[in-house]
Design brief:
The chain is built from six helices and 19 strands. It is α+β, with helices and mostly antiparallel strands and about 290 residues long.
Length: about 290
């Protein structure tokens, strides 16, 4: 098999674990390809034979992809894969993870299931940004969310949000989040947005610290196109896609729509979105007992 790996910012306690993963993958004469960022951050004591790839390299021939880290690392992995839709296994070497759900103690079982092709693929909708001028160096897609935020500690901004050309609302706020169902467990959730089932085919519009408390999150169809007009005392604003930031002026034209390809996340036996929610949000647990 041809296996891609991406990881970053490894803690010292992760070194032995990652060393074991590379050793296990090498046993069956798999071809291992690692991101240049992974190669820089992880210095192996063993001379594993690997190929190194960069953003923009053609990864079309990978059989599957392993993300070693947390949810942020998996979101970066999606930018390497892009429209190739290679299945991604998210291995959590950090703390809370809604996307990277495989723990250290589960990795051997996970790899065995993958080698036996005993898994399913969860196709997750992504969003696409069309802008004038172009932003994010061609990586204008996101699995979690797109945000418009004020740039500094100045007064709030006004974001006029249009859905298919019709004004939805003018948000007086620190910013606005447009999230996919996958991203509903991320930044949107922390700002009061709803949890949305991954197959719901919609986007969530969530204001960040709105001045008017009647401005609530709203769910719209992912067949819609969202456009924006931004106003504020400052003429510079921040826009982000899955934590990748750009500074823009109030003259920039922005449009959000559903991306033509999806992110394919590996689902192992006994995994389910509801189970992840229960585990990560501690549903059903009562500290009094």
């Amino acid at each position: 098999m041809r296996i891609g790996i991406h990881g970053r910012d490894f803690q010292q306690r992760s070194s032995h674990f990652i060393e074991w993963v590379l050793s296990r993958l090498s046993q069956d004469k798999n071809e291992i390809c690692v991101s240049s960022k992974f190669q820089r951050h992880f210095k192996s004591k063993t001379n594993f034979k690997v190929k190194v790839f960069e953003h923009g390299d053609n990864l079309r021939n990978l059989d599957f992809f392993i993300s070693l880290g947390g949810d942020g690392t998996l979101l970066e992995s999606v930018t390497y894969i892009g429209k190739n839709e290679t299945p991604i296994l998210g291995v959590n070497t950090g703390r809370l993870g809604f996307l990277a759900t495989i723990g250290r103690d589960e990795i051997e079982m996970a790899l065995e299931n993958i080698f036996k092709k005993n898994y399913t693929v969860d196709a997750r909708t992504m969003l696409r940004l069309e802008s004038d001028p172009d932003l994010f160096d061609g990586l204008s897609f996101a699995l979690n969310d797109f945000t418009i935020m004020k740039k500094d500690s100045s007064s709030m901004i006004t974001v006029h949000v249009f859905v298919d050309g019709e004004l939805l609302n003018s948000y007086w706020a620190d910013g606005v989040i447009i999230s996919t169902p996958t991203g509903s467990t991320g930044y949107s959730l922390s700002c009061g947005g709803p949890l949305v089932f991954p197959e719901s085919e919609n986007f969530v519009v969530t204001p960040v610290s709105p001045h008017n408390l009647t401005a609530r999150p709203i769910v719209v169809s992912d067949k819609s196109e969202l456009t924006f007009r931004i106003e504020g005392r400052s003429k510079k604003f921040l826009v982000s896609m899955d934590s990748r930031f750009e500074t823009v002026s109030d003259k920039v034209k922005l449009k959000i729509k559903k991306e033509s390809f999806k992110a394919h996340l590996v689902q192992l036996p006994d995994q389910h979105y509801f189970k992840t929610l229960r585990q990560k949000l501690n549903w059903g647990l009562d500290m009094r007992n």
